[in-house]
Design goal:
CATH class: Mainly Alpha
Number of domains: 1
Structural class: alpha+beta
C-alpha cells in the first residue's frame, strides 16, 4: 500500500472519530500515531481545509450544510 493511500485512510478515520469532540492525545492513542506527527501531518491540514474545528482544545468535525 502506498503512503498516499494510508494518509487518505487515516484522514477518513480522524474525521469519523471527530464526530464527537476529541483531543489530539485521545486521537493519537486511538490511531496509534505519534502525537506530534498526528498534529503536524493530519490535524493541521484538516483544520486548514476547514474539515474540523477546534474548541476548548478538542477537535470536532465541521457539519456540512
Amino acid at each position: 500500500m502506498n503512503q498516499k493511500y494510508k494518509r487518505i485512510e487515516l484522514e477518513k478515520k480522524i474525521l469519523h472519530l471527530c464526530e464527537t469532540p476529541k483531543s489530539t492525545r485521545e486521537l493519537s492513542v486511538l490511531i496509534n500515531v505519534n502525537i506530534n506527527t498526528l498534529r503536524s501531518k493530519y490535524i493541521y491540514p484538516l483544520f486548514k481545509e476547514n474539515k474540523i474545528s477546534r474548541h476548548l482544545r478538542k477537535y470536532k468535525r465541521v457539519k456540512k450544510i
